[in-house]
Amino acid sequence: MQLIARYRNAGFEATADGVMEFFDRRKDLQRPGVAFGSGGSDAEPAKVSTDISLVAFSRSDPEAFALSDLIVRGVSAGLERYLQERPLFRQVCPDQELFVIPIFNLQRYAPGEGFRQWHCDWTISDEATEPAHRVLAWILYCNSVTEAGTEFHWQQHHEEAERGKLVIFPASPSHIHRGRVNSEHSKTIATGWINAGSREGFLRRLAGS
Known about the structure:
Layout: E1 5-8, H1 10-25, E2 31-32, E3 47-48, E4 50-55, H2 62-85, H3 87-91, E5 98-100, E6 103-109, E7 114-115, E8 134-141, E9 145-152, E10 157-161, E11 165-170, E12 177-179, E13 187-196, H4 199-208
Antiparallel strand pairs: 1-11, 2-4, 3-7, 4-6, 5-13, 6-13, 8-11, 8-13, 9-10, 9-12
């Protein structure tokens, strides 16, 4: 439990409200959610959701950029608190540096939808977000829904979905988790990853790929 951290403040609440308004209005950006490891075409989908992908360094859509930049700044502030509270965590990471990946998702789960499959956020797939470098994951809950948060398997813990709460936790198999499904109410979150290394180095590699 010591590595699952939660942060709340008025800024996170305002950001959560902004996400809700943006998601409601920007239907042009909404796509069916996808997840790795679904288990084949005949298996039950690992995740059923509607997603909006955001990129916090692309200004092609000024409104989307403004929101994504706000979210990354907020999560970065939460990350700094996380590391200040756990100084040894930073010391043992490569380059003793971590950063919030500026590519992430907004996800809306309609009643009965969810990320039902147990999973962790670390993989070795070849993706732009460099998942092999993932150290931490984050979730910003954008509305309050009872019995619709995140279940952590080994910790036997359910993190409640509460508007404006940022949760940071390890991306590794030590923190296998899944979404708790509410059959009556929808849930909206922003979620992404924190990698080892520097943002500048990541952006250089991305530009060269």
